[in-house]
Amino acid sequence: MKRGQAEKFKDAEDKLTSNRQDLGLTATDVKAGIDDRWARLHDGRFLGGAGCSATTLWLTARERIELEGHPPISTYDMACMGLAGYITSRGWIELANPASTKLSIRLFNINNITTRQSSSRTSGDAEAEGDDFTDLSEFQLALRAMRSAMMMVMPWNFSIAALEGFLINSRYCREDIGALDKQAQILTQFCDYITKENSSRWRNKESFITAGEMRSFWNAFFLARPQSQLTKKKTASKFTKPATKEKTAFVDICFHWNRGLCNRAAGACTSRLGTPLRHVCDQKTDRDDPTKRCEGEHQRCVFHK
């Protein structure tokens, strides 16, 4: 059975390798045509997915697309992914512009959609800024909406998918901020920092930040924040051994006899380990030296009231 599975696996690997080698021989001749992004779709939209690196796609798009991308629209079918109504109008506009410095994950917070109904209060500034996330799950949902929307707007742009991949693999940076308050706020600021950096790279015709490169950017971002010092203190406290109480010196006096609770005769009294105990007074006479006792021939409960 294992041999059969190994053979099937090898056949699948051979097929994929053969198809990869044939790519140059089976190039598709794409003819010119009409595409209006709505009812008339060109055949080029249905070609096989590009097998090159995502950074190659990004850089090739930079050479062939205008700096600010294509005109934005908001008619993408987000309902098919269960994300209808998660994106503000400003979110669609900024997402369609690869060079935008105003793209923020706050624009994909479903709670900010309600502000659109009362957007007459100030116009676009309130919506452009958006409210902060109240918890981490709300941030995670917004990140999913942002990545899914990017798939619709720019299928060749994997910069948000790389950001989401890094956060998922790092458990949303739990090692650094797991013990801190306002985790969603910290991650929101990091996401906005990355999207601004990617927009700068787009303008400079450089590759976007991949998931593998994201760790160094997170370290630089987080270590510059005061919360990083709190994390260090809490981590150090986990490994700090609690202070142990100093053991008091053993005193061979029967404490139960001094409280009137020992019925044994003098000379026959012992501890649980068999150590002989004296029937003398155990009243402390020196606060600094617990071994110094009265040792009079009387009980503490009678003589030292």
Q: What would your notes on this structure say?
A:
By secondary structure, this protein is an all-alpha fold. It folds into two domains: 53-237, no CATH class; 249-305, no CATH class. Helices cover 45% and strands 0% of the residues. The chain has 13 helices and no strands. The chain has helices at 2-21, 54-64, 89-95, 113-117, 124-129, 136-153, 159-169, 174-177, 183-203, 211-223, 227-239, 255-258, 300-303. Helix 6 (136-153) packs parallel to helix 9 (183-203) and helix 7 (159-169) crosses helix 10 (211-223). The longest helix is centred in the middle third of the chain and has 21 residues, at 183-203.
Which helices and strands occur, and which strands form pairs?
Layout: H1 2-21, H2 54-64, H3 89-95, H4 113-117, H5 124-129, H6 136-153, H7 159-169, H8 174-177, H9 183-203, H10 211-223, H11 227-239, H12 255-258, H13 300-303
Helix pairs in contact: 6-9, 7-10
- What is the H-and-E element order? HHHHHHHHHHHHH
Number of helical segments with 4 or more residues: 13
Would you identify the regions where 5 or more consecutive residues have pLDDT less than 50? 119-128
Please identify the structural class as seen in this structure. mainly alpha
Average pLDDT metric: 86
Largest sheet: none
Tell me the radius of gyration.
36 Å
Q: Multimeric state of these chains?
A: single chain
Per DSSP E runs of 2 or more residues, the count of β-strands stands at 0
Cα distance, first to last residue? Answer: 88 Å
Tally of structural domains = 2
Content of β-strand:
under 5%
Shape: elongated
Binned, the helix content reads: 40-55%
